[in-house]
Each structure stands twice: as structure tokens, then as C-alpha cells.
Amino acid sequence: MDRYDYLVNRLKELNHRITPQRLAILKILTSSDSHPSAEMIYDQIKAEFPFTSFATVYKTIALIKELGEVLELEFSNDSNRYDGRRPYSHPHLICTSCKKILDPDLDSVNHLQKEIVKETGFTVTNHRLDFFGICPECQKNR
Ligand code: ZN
Ligand code: MN
Questions:
Q1: How far is the CA of 105 from the centre of ligand 2 (A)?
Q2: 86 C-alpha to ligand 2 centroid (Å)
Q3: What is the pLDDT of residues 58-70, one digit of tens each?
Q4: What is the pLDDT of residue 105?
Q5: On the chain, which terminus has fewer CB atoms closer than 10 Å, C or N?
Q6: What is the CATH number of domain 3-83?
Q7: Which residues of the chain form CATH 1.10.10.10?
Q8: Among all ligands shown, which has an atom nearest to the Cα of 95?
């Protein structure tokens, strides 16, 4: 079962209302690899459902977040961004010029976590690891 079907089933099981708009929001959240903000999702939804309100988008994201099924990346100066494909802690690579966010494939994170646990005795529940820089496309356009 893919992420989209899984989430639709979970909402149904919990007796949440399933509307076409809500399904469209779930589709974007679970298929997009661009870590969209609520505004980006709203812009996409409006094309298909012109009468959707921003509140609908926001509330649906909040609901999915409550279920622990979306990872929220908070930024103090920019809109929060969402990863509905990988709702667990993982590192991100962020272009400070075009604001694109990527999921790098790194083997070293597990190792790093083990090292931290060994060093401090902490029980680690989650982490946040962001790398900021300029993506190759933006480097070319400078
Ligand atoms: Zn860029
Ligand atoms: Mn991600």
C-alpha cells in the first residue's frame, strides 16, 4: 500500500471526513518530493478546486501532523515546509537561494546517532539535521 492509500484509510478508520479537496491535499503531501509549504499546496489545490480556502489546507495538514504522518520543517524567516513521504527524522539539504529542499541519501546519520548516544547516554527520540547552501542550478545562475 502506498502512503496515499495508507493515509486515506487511516482517516476513514478515525471517522474523519473525506472530501475531494482533502484527498487532493493528501495526494500532494504524499507524492511531492519538493517539501511544499501550505501556501504551495494551496496554490496547487486552487487550480483544481477554486473555492477551497487556505484554512481547509491548513487544517488538513494539522490533522495529518497530529497523526504523526507528516514531518514539519520549521523556519523562523520562511514558511514551514512539509514532508508527507518520510514522516520520520531525516537530514535535509536546503538551497538558501531558490529555497528548494532535498533528501540526501546518507549512511552516516545512524552512525552519528549511535556516537551521540554512546557519548552522552541520552535516549534519542528524534533529530533535526539541516544543511544550508547553494544548489548546483543556482550556482550556475550566479
Ligand atoms: Zn537553488
Ligand atoms: Mn524530507
A1: 10
A2: 6
A3: 999 999 999 999 9
A4: 86
A5: C
A6: 1.10.10.10
A7: 3-83
A8: 1
Residue 16 grid coordinates: 474523519
Position of cell 511544499? Answer: 36
Count of alpha carbons within 13 angstroms of residue 127, beta-carbon side: 15
**pLDDT tens digits, 37-95:** 999 999 999 999 999 999 999 999 999 999 999 999 999 989 999 999 999 999 999 99
**Closest ligand (CA of 29):** 2
Distance of CA 30 to the CA centre of its chain: 9
For the segment(s) 92-140, the CATH number from 3.90.1150.10, 3.40.50.150, 3.30.1490.190, 3.30.1490.100 is: 3.30.1490.190
Distance 140 CA to ligand 1 centre (A): 10
- Tell me the C-alpha distance between 24 and 57, whole Å: 10
**Taking a C-beta distance cutoff of 8 angstroms, is the pair 2, 61 a contact?**
no
Query: Quick one: CA dihedral 38, 39, 42, 47, positive or negative?
Result: negative
pTM for the full predicted model: 0.91
